[in-house]
Amino acid sequence: MPSWPALVSQAFNGLALGALLALVSSGLTIILGTLGVLNFAHGALFAVGAYVAFVILQYTSSFVLALLGCCGVMLLLGILLERVIIRLFYDRPDEDQILVTYGIGIVLVECLRAAFGGNAQRVPVPSWGRGATQLGFLIYPTYRLQLIAIIAMLLLGLYLVLYRTSVGLVVRAGIENPAMVGILGINVRRAFLLVFAVGVVAVGLAGMLYAPVVAVTPDMGANFMAQSFVVIVLGGLGSFPGAVVGGLIAGEIISLTSAFNSSYSEVMLYALMALLLVLRPQGLFGSEGRV
Amino acid sequence: MKRVRPGGLRACLPEFAVLVTLVAAPVVLPHAGFSTDLLTRVLNWGLIGLGFDILFGLTGLLSFGQAAFYGAGGFVTAYLLVSGTLGSVWLALAAGTLAAGVFGLMVGWLAVRRIGIYFTMITLAFGQMAYFVENSPLSKYTGGENGLPGVPVPVIGFGQHAIRISAGMPMYVLFAGIFFIGYVLARRIVRSPVGAVLKAIKQNTGRVAMLGHNVPAYKLAAFVIAALYAGLAGGLLGSFQSYMPPDAFSLETSGQLVVQTIVGGAGTLIGPAVGAAVWLWLRDNLQLIPGLATLWKLVLGIAFIVLVIGLRRGICGEIFHWWNERRDLAALRAAEARTAAIEATGDGVAVEPEHQAVDVTLPLAAPATGNSDIALEARSLARHYGGLKAVDGVSFKVRRGSIHAVIGPNGAGKSTLFKMLLDEVSPSSGEVLLFGDRVTGAGVSRAAQLGIAKSNQLNQLFLNLPVRSNLRIAALARRRGPLRLDLLRPADSLPEVEQQVDAILKLLDLAERADTAVHILAYGEKRRLEIGMALATSPNVLLLDEPLAGMSPHERVATCAFIRDIARTRTIVIVEHDLDAIFGLAERITVLYEGRLLADGSPDEIRRNQAVQDAYLGGLHAHEPA
After folding, report:
1. Nearest CA in chain A to B61
2. Which one of A102, A237, A264 has the shortest CB-CB distance to B255?
């Protein structure tokens, strides 16, 4: 039985990981919900975000600049991918969409490998995030706390866009019933472009924010993608609140299990998913009809 | 009618071609940059690919978790050998393959409940789970990140005369032999009744279930077959390189298999091996070119995207498609010309001035029933969608051997009621009895096995299969029951099934079109085939949902005569908007209005019923108390 401070510290780790998974998964889930495309390039886009941070922070030391730069690059990349490739696949079967995005993932990862090599790169922690913070009886790395705060703000922003703007209304309606939105005379395809780009920005920012904590490699996103699949199955396909709550649950499961026995941390996550599929296949926030 | 059954030798052409290629490859291909070891690896990938193609190419289930079974088979085999539990490599291979199959059964049981995107995500997640299980909790047995070194090679014979199958050519011969056996088996499976059902599942899962096949069980069978192939390949991998690597379990492995299959051509069985040859050749040969060393996978990735966008059939698929198209072009043109002719005259049937009543006796017997006089009974059936009461407490009885019509204005709940009769939609309350047996709650494929079949308002046919194959899928369900794993018998080798198909073809006047793909048929022909599909299951009770919709006047007359013929031997329930036809056909009519039963009686009674007239002439409201 681990000590209480160790458990609390793991709970914070779980929160940080969970917040990250929530951001990654919300990008995945709004794309899936609106466009109907399961984006298998999501892991590669995570890595692209991390490398953008790596490049920008090599030349400047401004984290804010890196954040803005990352937004811009991911937005452009998202628009480019949607216009050139994804657009051709809306009317094709699910598996074709999966295959083509998987192919995009391979190409992106290999571009990163060609440009930066396969070795791990380090991205510095921003100057204001160095050191540790005293939290009562526990000392915790400052950057991880800030990570949680930044991601919370980003998710809040995404929430406001989705739930408080007319564009968000179209997107949410599109998740429920894309055909009906089209019948009402709204150009769904234009919303698709926006949603895809926003989803790509979300996952790119996740990669960028996580870069200072881990080794940056071209393949770094693969495991995050697999975990975010679990998250959206947990939360219900296409559900934004489901992705956020599911992400936090997944993060805590991984972290708290590893406080007891680290070798089971990932296994537990997938075991939970198996259980949920049997008991509640539509996920926590999904409705049966969407499955 | 002449049945086209290819002769024994012609039918074995693919096997022969694969055999020749396997023999010639180590002689010819080394000059093109394929070393013997590379060829062995290609065959190892090709072996997993054979199973994967049955799952993906044939059944249409895209799994991103095949690495789980490749790794499971590999590590079980390797552990049994390295730990000294088993001395014989052959036994260890068998154990590993079996272990992968059992693992496949467990994962598949969860995965096949879901379709499309869900299925893919679940398989991927279980693949990752297997990877982490290998890596940490089981690392004591599997060596964790280090894998298991020192896996022995197989030995043939005993004692003094034993031959060790060493690396290089002997290993290639072993792999080639196993691949060939695996290929022959896979071909048998594809051509078996199970293969026919799997192919149909890919095209229209719902219809396969409605005909009486146990769809989840067949999907699970395909899943386990794929896992067995992967497990065997994994076991062989350890022996081949005397080392079992942990990355056999990785997501990369599953992804590589998918890419190779698409590149080589899904649904061709040898496609995955061809794709593997492309992948491994690029990797080994582009690496030798300075400047391209790291770019081989980028090249491959771009090529993959282009293939998915434009040449979805893959290398072998495009070649076979071109070949078949060229071969069948004349027949295709003739079939299309006939369709055009039928559609130009608006008639699909020869006009018979005097229709001779035909007894519809089918070679396959209908399921045995109780001897009750009531064939089908609905007891206060209701189906509510939220606040909408689509059907609200409807009861009626259908007498055995009669034609019973259900009519009502649009939105009366006829289609929902119909779907509940064969448990396609489960009622909110109430039940359906078929000769006294409860159908409700059994599920649509069980209902079909009990002897109730439906032809749909909108055609649900297997469009890319020939007419004969469509009917065969239906007849197989009656002959073989909900599930039977007769993997090695040819699909067309059941005499009663073929007689059944021939009989239906004759009844439908589609004998000449037996080998035409359904999507080429004229509309009227498709409608007739839709009825024929239901009839081919030899049902006791046949439900016809708007059988006359969209037919020309001639076709209507012919179809009505056909329905009357069918009714001489079985019970028919019919929903139809053409009231003239209904009053001519039906012995009893049930009228629905706004989800409720409005009237039930003989055609004369219904014709005179004031409430029915009002319902059809614009609503009952005039008679409702103010």
Report:
1. A95
2. A102
Q: A270 and B297: CB-CB below 8 Å? A: no
B186-239 tens-digit pLDDT: 999 999 999 999 999 999 999 999 999 999 999 999 999 999 999 999 999 999
Asked if A32 is an interface residue toward chain B (Cβ–Cβ < 8 A), one would say: yes
pLDDT in tens, B39-86: 999 999 999 999 999 999 999 999 999 999 999 999 999 999 999 888
Q: Which helix (H) or strand (E) holds A12?
A: helix A4-35
Residue B191 and residue B291: Cα distance in Å, rounded?
Answer: 47
Residues of A in contact with B312 (CB under 8 A): 96
Q: What are the pLDDT tens digits along chain A (291 aa)? A: 678 878 888 888 899 999 999 999 999 998 888 888 899 999 999 999 999 999 998 888 888 898 999 999 999 999 999 999 999 998 888 889 999 999 999 999 999 998 998 888 888 888 777 778 877 777 788 888 888 999 999 999 988 888 888 878 887 787 777 778 778 877 777 788 888 999 999 999 999 999 988 889 999 998 899 899 989 888 888 788 889 999 999 999 999 988 888 778 888 888 888 778 777 777 777 654 443
Determine the Cα–Cα distance for residues B334 and A73; give it in Å rounded to an integer. Answer: 56
| Token pair belonging to B583 | 């009053």
pLDDT higher than 70, residue B563: yes
Query: Which residues sit opposite B541 in a β-bridge?
Result: B452, B571
Nearest in space to B176 (alpha carbons), one of B324, B35, B25? B25
Residue with tokens 């794993």: B485
CA torsion angle A114 A117 A120 A124 (round to 10): -80
- The predicted model scores a pTM of 0.90
Percent of chain A past pLDDT 90, that is, above it, reads 38
Instruction: Say whether B298 and A114 touch across the interface (CB within 8 A).
Output: yes
Under DSSP, the state recorded for B57 is: I
Residues of A in contact with B259 (CB under 8 A): 102-103, 106
Q: Look-up: residue for tokens 């009461």?
A: B389
Alpha helices in B396-522 (DSSP H): 414-421, 444-450, 467-480, 495-508
**Amino acid identity for residue A250 in this structure:** A
Q: What is the reported pLDDT for A289?
A: 42
Within an 8 Å CB–CB cutoff, is residue A278 touching chain B?
yes
Cβ density class B613-623: b for 16+ within 10 Å, e for less: ebbeeeeeeee
Give the Cα separation of B277 and B285 in Å (integer): 12
Q: Is the ipTM of this complex over 0.95?
A: no
- Distance, CA of B151 to CA of B84 (rounded, Å): 10
Burial class (CB in 10 A: 0-12, 13-18, 19+), A87: middle
DSSP B181-231: HHHHHHHHHHHSHHHHHHHHHHH-HHHHHHTT--HHHHHHHHHHHHHHHHH
Six-digit token string for A49: 């975000």
- CA distances from residue A134 to A141, A142, A247, B228 in whole angstroms, order as listed: 9, 9, 26, 55
Please name the residues in contact with A72: beta carbons below 8 A apart, sequence gap of 6 or more. Answer: none
Q: Which of A38, A118, A273 sits opposite B125 (nearest CB)?
A: A273
Interface probe for B, chosen from A38, A85, A94 (most Cβ of B below 10 Å), is A94
One-letter amino acid of B135? N
Query: Distance (Å, rounded) from C-alpha B404 to C-alpha B381?
Result: 17
Count H helices, E strands: chain A?
A: 11, 2
- CATH of A4-279 among 1.20.1070, 2.60.40, 1.20.1740, 1.10.3470: 1.10.3470
> Cα angle vertex B173, ends B167, B178, to 5°?
115
All structural domains of chain B, each given as residue ranges with its CATH number in brackets, are 11-251 (no CATH), 353-365+373-617 (3.40.50.300)
Residue with tokens 């023999």: B23
